[in-house]
Amino acid sequence: MVSSLMALAWIIVFWQMPVKWWGGQAQITSSLKWIATLVMAAITVGVLVVLRAYYPWVVVGYLGLWLLIGMVDATERIIPNRLVALSLGWSFATYPWTHFFVITAVACGLGLGLLLLLVHIATRGGLGMGDVKYSVALGVALGWPEGLLALVAGIWAAGLYAVVLILARKAKRQDSIPLGPFLVFGGLLGLLGALGH
């Protein structure tokens, strides 16, 4: 019941919350809202009915935050610090506080963040700092090895999407695309992988 109410609350946020509050200026498109709503509903049903997770409300919390991150980045090309902070806060608030779990999760987050920070430096800002910070949040939330799976899957998905755009002549090689939505996709895969254990 709690998870269902949380999912409904997130869907209301998707449709009603102005982007400006999260750090942007534009309006989130209806297509993104519909996609997020359908994904939210599908995964919530999956968690509640099929996966039968012990703490489905924890999963629904991540799901809503991450979908919102993906929508804002797709619209504004920015991942607001407050959303990254909320994801980290949710992780620490819902952790099973065991010494090993916390150390591995935090180490994974710092490792992924360091990796993308090096890419940020190497590309002279071609990869945004929002992506770097969000990778830390993903690593902390998912731990090892699901955090790495999320990062790899997200980068591969972004690369495939870029190739499709170039082949369709809708983008050029020097054009950039927001990485956030693809990291969210990878994060959802990692989350499903973690639940499958």
Automatic annotation (TrEMBL):
InterPro entries from the UniProt entry: Prepilin_IV_endopep_pep (IPR000045), Prepilin_peptidase/N-MTase (IPR050882)
Keywords, sorted A to Z: Membrane, Transmembrane, Transmembrane helix
Transmembrane segments: 6-23, 35-55, 61-79, 100-122, 142-167, 179-196
GO terms under cellular component: plasma membrane
Keyword Transmembrane set for record: yes
Keyword field contains Amino-acid biosynthesis: no
Family of this protein: Belongs to the peptidase A24 family.
Protein name: Prepilin type IV endopeptidase peptidase domain-containing protein
